[in-house]
Amino acid sequence: MKQKLKHLLYTEHPQHGILALGMVLIGLILIFNDDYFFWPPFMISVLNDDLVGGVFVVDGILLLKWALSASGKIYANRNLLIMTAGLLAFEATAEFSHGFIAHKPHMLIAGVAETVILIFVFSIIGKSKKHNY
């Protein structure tokens, strides 16, 4: 049983799997917390919509699907990582903005964590294949 599970979850791209898990978890947090964003005031209803969290979840699922697939298409990897970087940049900016407005250190720490994950994504992008040689 352990071998079957290991074979099923094997990937040559474990960094993508880790990133996918993080994106899904961030998305679930945003989906289940309807009062997460509170600034800017005119965007509260848009930012707290479950669609925002859903985009994170879908991105994570697609990243995991790519990491577990045998084909590993380069263009799909590139596009997914660019989308992931954009989502993380948005989230880090939102965390820093909320932290400065509310004067809450834990929000600033979340912004730092999102920035670190964003740098991790840039590292993956830098090490990924760029062409089909």
Write the layout of secondary structure elements.
Elements: H1 2-8, H2 14-32, H3 44-47, H4 50-68, H5 74-102, H6 105-127
Helix pairs in contact: 2-4, 4-5, 5-6
Transmembrane segments: 20-39, 51-68, 80-101, 107-125
Keywords: Membrane, Transmembrane, Transmembrane helix
Q: Could you describe the 3D structure shown?
A:
This protein is mainly α. The chain has helices spanning 2-8, 14-32, 44-47, 50-68, 74-102, 105-127. It is built from six helices and no strands. Helix content is 76%, strand content 0%. Helix 4 runs antiparallel to helix 5.
What is the helix fraction of residues, given as a range? over 70%
Shape: elongated
| Annotation, overall tally of beta strands | 0
How does the major sheet shape up?
none
Keywords: Membrane, Transmembrane, Transmembrane helix
Transmembrane segments: 20-39, 51-68, 80-101, 107-125
